[in-house]
Amino acid sequence: MVDGKTRIRCRKCGEVYYRSTDRRNPCPYCAKDALIPNGTIAILQLSVRPGGYTDKNLRLEAGLGSKAKSGAIYLRSTATVIAGPQKDKKFTVPIGIFSEKSDFWLHKGRELIREILNSSQGLSASDNSRKAVFSRIIDSYSILNGICFVGVVGVRKNQNGREENNISRILSGDDEEYKELVARKKFLPARKVPPRSEPSSALWRLP
Q1: To the nearest whole percent, how much of the chain has pLDDT over 90?
Q2: Nearest to 165 by CA among 151, 178, 177
Q3: What is the DSSP code (8-state) at residue 198?
Q4: Residue 4 has what DSSP assignment?
Q5: CB 31 within 8 A of CB 16
Q6: Chain Cα centroid distance, residue 85
């Protein structure tokens, strides 16, 4: 023990590091190797881990939502790289649904979901056509479980000062990098076909 810290040899990588006696710090060498390099463009698949919280008003069914100690409601999501050199690496992506304290995370969550839907289907963020609007409509958050999209992975420090991955940007049909992946058939956008619109009757034929 040195200065109140315990000398630890990682069983996985064999490196030696020091850990505070009152904390269970993970091996910093393994944690660094597990990180996806900052700025990596990756094809990601989102998975949502049910947290046991159900609220029909928030469209959270079958315990899909999670409730934090603060009372905030969110989706406990994980993004996994499904292709390329960083394949199978993953990181957490919490998606805010509701908070009594502020609408900030609610708006951030909606913005993130909209960007994921755009990326998944190759939509332009500025496309407000009937087809595009319909493609962004979801009946349940469960549709996000298993959805694939293209994102730029970043690295940031969390509340404990440790580096972790996050999504710094989501690419869509507006981005050249996205178009290149589609052209090379590395990513195939999903297609959601809108229902046929009912033909409107001429005014003079209405009773």
Answers
A1: 64
A2: 151
A3: P
A4: T
A5: no
A6: 20
